[in-house]
Every structure is written in C-alpha cells, then in structure tokens.
Amino acid sequence: MRRRSGLWIIVGVMVTGLLFLLAQSVIFSDETALLSKQDAENRLAEQVDGDITFKSESSNDFIFEITREQGVYHATVSGKDGSIIDLTREATIENDEKTTSQSNQENSSNQGSNQTEQNDDENNSESNNDQDSTQNVDENNPDNEKENNTEDEPTRLSTDEVTNQINQEFEGEITSIELDDDSDIFTLVIEHELTRTQLEVDALTGEIIARETEDTTPELAVTEEEATTIALEQVQDDGEVANVQLQEIDGIIYYIVTINATEEEQAIVEINGFSGNVETVTWSERNDTSSEEKENENNQNEEEESD
User: Could you state, in chain order, the average pLDDT of each consecutive group of 10 residues for the chain (307 residues)?
Assistant: First the structure.
C-alpha cells in the first residue's frame, strides 16, 4: 500500500513539472511572437487609406506599397507591434520639376553669395594693403606707434549677448551656437514649429550677415485640401474655412482647421496628417474682427439712443 502511494506521488510530481514547462513555453512563445504579413497589413489599413500591396519582408519588418489619389507611397510596418516605422512618397514629375526649380534657385543664390564673397575678398585685400602702408608709416614714426597702441581694439560679443539678441528678434529655440575664432562669426540654428533657420552673426557688431530657413515638415499622406474636406464634413459642410495650420504633437503632425460655422460659433478640427483620422472637434465662440465691429456698432447705437 505504501509503495503504491509513493508511486502516485512520483507520478504527480512529474505531471506537475511537465505542465509547468509547457505553460512556460507557451508564455514565452507568445511574448516573442511576431505579427503575420496579414496582421501587419490590417494594422496598416487601420492607419492609412488606399490600396495596399505587399512588397517584401526585411528582418522583422514588412514593406507595403500604398496607392492613393495623390500618388504611390512606400510604408515600413514593424513586425512586433504593427506601428508605421517609415512612410515615403515616390517622386513624381511635378515634384521633380519643383526640385529642379529649387535647385536652380539655390544655384542662383550660391552664385550671388560667391560674388559677394569675391567682393569681400577684394575689399579685404585693399584694407590689408592700407594697413600695410599705415604700418610702414608707423614704424618710421615712433609717436604714431604710441598713439596706435593706445587705441581701443574692437570688443567681441559674448555668447550670452548674441543669444539674447536673437531671442528678441526671432521666435523659436536656439538649438546650437558656435563661434569661428578666425572669422569672428557666430553660427546659430533656430528650431521653430516646422522650420529650421540658420543664422550667421558678426561677433563684433551683432549684425546678421546671413540667414537661411528650411521647411522641416515631413511628407504627409493627407493633403491640406483633403484635411479641409474632412473638417467641413464634421460641421455638415456648413461653414467657411478660416485657417489651416500644421502642428506637431508628440511626434505626430496634425492639421488644425478652424471653421466659422455660424456668425457666433467656430469649430476647431484636429486631423491626423498621416491617417486622416479626426482626433478632436472643439466648438467655441468666434473672436474675429467682424464680431468685434458688430459689438462696437451695437454699443454706439445704444449710447446714441441714451443721449
């Protein structure tokens, strides 16, 4: 009897151990499981509209081709969580023409800059010749040498002084500032909303001698016209679009569309620039010039009646 009890105990321990190992293998396999191609395509369809075609698989990611009215896009979807890692629009003839035009404008600007630099070099050369002539005269005249030593040399502006000056003149955040000791020029980079501006500032006078601004807005799947149509649908196409802006929130680009729905109310619609989904619709009283003018006219009429 005791032998049978011991045998059942051993069998029970072995069965329990096997069940434990089986449960662990199921748990860990679920944690490391990757999405299938179909699951990744479904996740992509939830975020972006269009005809989706599977192209290839790279490592743990899936690459799809999306055909929309605006063109063809390539999307890379994570095989782990189905998020969009990259969304790129293929180049079109219209874009190529714009790129060529921009390139020509940049070349023209560079030629003008080179001409300016050449003129500056000539002026510097003449200035150096004048300085050499003056130096020769000063060497022959000890009195002039004493006078030159007493003259004040130009003072270089500090980094804080240049930063304060730029903050007063430009909106945004200064992300970098560097000083070239040889040329006495500060180079600054300012990030503001969806633009990046690079400035060159004279370290002796504080004068801005060069400025270049570029648009840092990423390629969006939804155009401004589409966002406007989506926003109007939220107010049953009854209203007038007053303003459309792009705004970055937590790494996602949104269209902020303001619609004057009635004479008293306006709707502010927030639309995802990648998926076209409407995030929020906020209603508020209109605060534009026409409303203020009406109030002023009403107040003036009341004063005239009281008089």
Answer: 70 82 63 77 86 86 87 85 83 50 59 60 60 55 52 82 93 91 93 85 93 80 88 80 87 89 88 90 76 56 59
CATH of 155-216, one of 2.40.50.140, 2.60.40.1570, 3.10.450.40, 3.10.20.90: 3.10.450.40
pLDDT of residue 27: 59
Please list, in sequence order, all residues whose beta carbon lies within 8 angstroms of the beta carbon of residue 196, skipping any fewer than 6 positions away.
Answer: 189, 190, 213, 214, 216
Length of the chain: 307
Domain boundaries along the sequence of the chain: 155-216, 224-302
Please indicate, yes or no, whether the overall pTM of this predicted structure exceeds 0.70.
Answer: no
Query: Using the 8-state DSSP alphabet, how is residue 188 labeled?
Result: E
Phi, psi for 77 (deg, rounded to 5): -110, 135
> Which two tokens mark 307?
């008089």
Name 201's Cβ contacts closer than 8 Å, sequence gap at least 6.
Answer: 162, 165, 166, 185, 186, 187, 188, 207, 208, 209
Closest CA to 63 of 90, 44, 91, 81: 44
Burial grade of 261 (CB within 10 A; 0-12, 13-18, 19 or more): middle
| Distance in angstroms (rounded) separating the CA atoms of residues 125 and 105 | 30
- Contact by Cβ (8 Å): 247, 214: no
Fold for the domain defined by 224-302: Nuclear Transport Factor 2; Chain: A, (3.10.450)
Domains 155-216 and 224-302 share a fold: yes
